Description:
It contains two helices and seven strands. By secondary structure, the protein is of the alpha+beta class. The chain has a domain at 21-120: ATP-grasp fold, B domain (D-amino Acid Aminotransferase, Chain A, domain 1). The protein is globular.
Amino acid sequence: MLREVxxxxxxxxxxxxxxxxxxxxxxxxxxxxxxxxxxxxSAEHSVQRMIPLDAAGxxxxxxxxxxxxxxxxxxxxRRMLEHLLGLVSQFFAETxxxxxxxxxxxxxxxxxxxxxxxxxxxxxxxxxxxxxHARDRKGDDFHPSGxx
Length: 148
């Protein structure tokens, strides 16, 4: 989150600090020949694949990306990046988005989106849904903790 605050002497720029991690960019574009493709970028290299991206495709994309850099990341960070690629690929495949770019910092067990932009051919109408492991009080599998 960036915030500019005016003062009598000038401007102060404040940015929320993100924990250490690996900075990568994930982008997608729609090509007339190949259809929708997703790419993983660093400052000096990028790899891309056509979507939809399953778990094996996400793993291959990350392995190709890390092989170029001649350094492996920690196992948890690599799996988080694979998971994120799967989510982004699914979103890109199921929506009218034609292009996007995400600047992401991947941590061991999470990620932080630093910047995002997208272009779509029409307005996005996304249905609200709970995460896979979320529970609500009216759900069939809800069992409150403690004594009943």
